[in-house]
TrEMBL record:
InterPro entries: Carbonic_anhydrase (IPR001765), Carbonic_anhydrase_sf (IPR036874)
Required cofactor(s): Zn(2+)
Any GO BP annotation: cellular response to oxidative stress
Binding site for Zn(2+): 5, 7, 61, 64
Lineage of the organism: Eukaryota, Fungi, Dikarya, Basidiomycota, Agaricomycotina
The keyword Metal-binding appears for this protein: yes
Recorded family membership: Belongs to the beta-class carbonic anhydrase family.
Protein's UniProt name: Carbonic anhydrase
Amino acid sequence: MFLGCTDNRLTPASIFQAPIGSIITQNNIGNQYSKRDTSTDAAITYAIEDLGVQHIIVLGHYGCNGVARAITGSKERNSISKWIEPVVNFYKRERRREVVKFRDSRKPRRGLPNGITATPDTSDPGFRAFVEENVKKTVKALREDSILARAYQGSAKMAAKNTPYEVYVHGFVFDESTGQVVDLKVSFGPPGKPIPPVPFTAIATAKNFHMQKHLPNFFKGKTLPKKSS
């Protein structure tokens, strides 16, 4: 499963060359997770309990417009500003060095009484760093507040074999300009079990499973009925 961002122009299936039917996605502005967001929380729970997913990837992307809007701010109060408010608040308190330097450079000063309000360049190191931290924040929220938090915290005092789920959560960022995917190394899984390699092996397995069993004729095309003369 991929928890991604609404404005990422490429789908996870195209980014990872995954076969049709092998992945599910849930997107929102800024790839956020909150247990108060019924839609995302239900999608995560459904993927785990009903579909049996083993890997959940939080997929951010450099140049994210949702993160950019949180940085530039907006005086208009609407559903968008309400949705990205957690990202706005996170931006104000994030202490990563690149983000602090970036934030300070945009503050009001002589000649710029309002500071810098323009959308940051996609290549700006501070902007890129904050995109990464926002992904890490979502992974942390899944660790602390999702169905996995309840299961893993309850099983932490027990043997790993008693863990009700074997689901691993990863934080990735996609670079639309280069096609590269960055693993932020914040993965977590069941207590007492090692984190497996990032799930490209799982995607390959899914490809074989779906292509051979469920979609053997999908790419063979359809025979159109002949038109009557």
